[in-house]
Amino acid sequence: MKPLMPSFDRRSARDMLVDAGLRPTRQRLSLAELLFAKGDRHVSAELLQQEAEKVNVSVSLATIYNTLHQFTQAGLLREVAVEGNKAYFDTNTSDHHHFFFEEDNRVVDIPGGMSVDALPEVPEGMEITRVDVVVRLRRKKN
Ligand SMILES: [Zn+2]
Questions:
Q1: Which residues in 120-131 are b (16+ Cβ under 10 Å) and which e?
Q2: What is the 127 CA–ligand 1 centroid distance (Å)?
Q3: What are the boundaries of each domain within the chain?
Q4: Tens-digit pLDDT profile for residues 42-93
Q5: Which site in 6, 28, 85, 121 is 20 to 30 Å from 61, CA atoms measured?
């Protein structure tokens, strides 16, 4: 269990956005607060919209997507691409890998991490920026 960040409030959200070079609009502040006050987690745009509605912040899904991508570009989030049309945004931007539970569409950090050996040779003039591993899981069929 990751520690919560009970001290993460609107002021922290403002500092975080300003430090990242983003203008702290009211909508960005609300979404940053929702995203980052709960410690490390993996959030889809749909889940974030539900959380926003619960605290009476009305934001369209398109705006949520835009904001999540802006936060990602600013280095505040990391996108975990699981399927072509499904994106999860990770509040932990450090290098780590994920389990994906197919039955309930859940993304979880692989406990203890994993090592990736035998990386391929990359094309001439290119370098690896990051290796993202998603290990997909389903219940065993007996
Ligand atoms: Zn993660």
A1: eeeeeeeeeeee
A2: 23
A3: 10-137
A4: 999 999 999 999 999 999 999 999 999 999 999 999 999 887 667 899 999 9
A5: 6
Distance from C-alpha of 50 to C-alpha of 59, rounded to nearest angstrom: 10
* Centre of ligand 1 from the C-alpha of residue 30, in Å: 22
- Tell me the CA–centroid distance for residue 107 and ligand 1, in Å: 7
- Percent of the chain at pLDDT above 70? 94
- Look at phi and psi of residue 107 and say left if phi exceeds 0, alpha if psi is from -120 to 50, else beta: beta
Provide the β-strand partners of residue 83. 86
Which CATH code for domain 10-137? 1.10.10.10
Contact 91, 36 (CB under 8 A): yes
